[in-house]
Amino acid sequence: MNTIFDGFYKGKTIFITGHTGFQGSWLSLWLVLLGANVVGYSLPPLTSPSLFDSLKIKKSITSQISDINNKDKLFSVMSKHKPDIVIHLAAQSLVRKSYDTPLETFSTNVLGTANLLESVRDVPSVKSCLIMTSDKAYENKEWDYAYRENDPMGGHDPYSASKGASELIVSSYRRSFFNQKNSPGIASIRAGNVIGGGDWSEDRLIPDCIRSLQLNKKITLRNPKSIRPWQYVLESLSGLLLIGSKLNKNSPQLGRAWNIGPMSASDVSVQSVVKNIIKKWGSGTINIKQNNLHESKYLRLDSSNISNILKWKPTYSIEQSITETVNWYLNYNHNDKSIHDYTVSQIEDYVSKAKKSKHVWVKN
Fold this sequence. Notes:
- The relative contact order is 0.13.
- With 364 residues, the protein is α/β, with parallel strands linked by helices.
- Helix 11 packs antiparallel against helix 12 (339-356).
- It has a single domain (9-290, 298-362), classed as Rossmann fold.
- The model has no long low-confidence stretch (mean pLDDT 94).
- It is built from 12 helices and 14 strands.
- Helix content is 42%, strand content 16%.
- The longest helix has 21 residues, at 102-122.
- It is globular.
- The N and C termini lie close together (10 Å).
């Protein structure tokens, strides 16, 4: 396992914000398997159950429970551990919640990103920094068009606007403070709608479906015809880790924004995803409910740059992504296997499939 990505992460100290979240937990586990020394900085898990607690990741990493808005604490922890790489995942990540807590959303997602970059400026050990934003950072025109990295930032709802704003901050810091030859490489990642086992967030499609199925309740859909770029959690993370393995002081051209999206066939409707989930679960019904809050109807990502420049490509189809996701929750429900061991096996299966497909990051 620790030879993939050219063995780059073995022995490296990786500082992850948001390590207690859904993607942060998957990333922390994968980096541990890659032989990295992981230092996490985050609020406590926001859900119960949580993937972070279920995987017992705390035993394998250094975990600091703190707020990204506490600039002094953030710098203190980062400078103490002298990381080689910083990966920023900490965020208020829910569209509907952002309508209820707009100031919290902007504070965490915008000022939190600035706080993070300030610490990176002042910690000389850092060689590169990857910042996860969102596909929703784009000014959505509601057209059948895959957004490219040079399309305008925007955002109707506070969450989307905060992600567009954080991209502008990253761009400003890169050009203002990380523009020297030996400056750390700074890249932002705009991933699609990430799915996978262990997501228990409120007002998010997959966990909402699973909760309804567990209770034998109808699955309520607000926007059944909305199109999204659905992708398995390890897809976005493999792209991020590939960029991280190449991004350093000697590769300034890689310090830029990157889309990481699925193959176009995975851009399907919410209703199509839910019908597939029901089929794999073995039961379930759908209830359509009018949505009174604005959410984009059409959203696609163009991943040509990461495909052409770094030769990254998706590993799983939408069907396989849903299968892996549903199987995780079924295993969790039935206690068929230690959830830690089962999650590790899903990472191993993903790597094996990528290797069979001769993907660039598993060539060794």
